[in-house]
Amino acid sequence: MINSGFEKNVLKFKPSWGVVEGYFYTRPVRHILCGFACERVREGAYIWRFALPLYDHLDSLTLNFGERVANSGKLMISGQVETAAEEFVRRIGPFETETYRWQDLDVFLNRFQASRAIANPWVRRACAWTQILLGRVSDARVNLEFLCSNEGTRDYPHFLEDIEHVLSDLKNGVENARSSLLTWEAQTKRRLGVE
Length: 195
Fold this sequence. Notes:
By secondary structure, this protein is of the alpha+beta class. It has eight helices and six strands.
């Protein structure tokens, strides 16, 4: 999303952060990667805050669980990268505490389950995975069965396979399903190189 000079300068201001593929995240990382990213547009960038459940079986980072930082406007990055990095850090300041709370499984679930984003199959599926980790198996089954009956999900590679895999695990107990989710989480962490 943004060049490496900008990333290096942001990390000077936020040495406890990590960065992967232009997504800045707070450490330590448990189940959910949380932080901020820049969406590159003509002559600048918009700032987003995001959460990414690492236990979801994803191949790339997305902003499915994110939103533009309110009233942040366009960040001009064509000039001095140190100045742009400092401005980025200043603009996200008021949003950091709330954004980092999304790392908590209950907070994440409540935030995205109650949003319009739940209409997105990827968001609904991640909410179901979160419900499993929290032991809310009946709620998870409702969401997963809804997705299985939704014709649009057949177009996503491996989407239904993953759901069927976890539903099969649930027949043998919630711990089997949790184990699959935590295996996917470990794989995602390794693939992205997050700590």
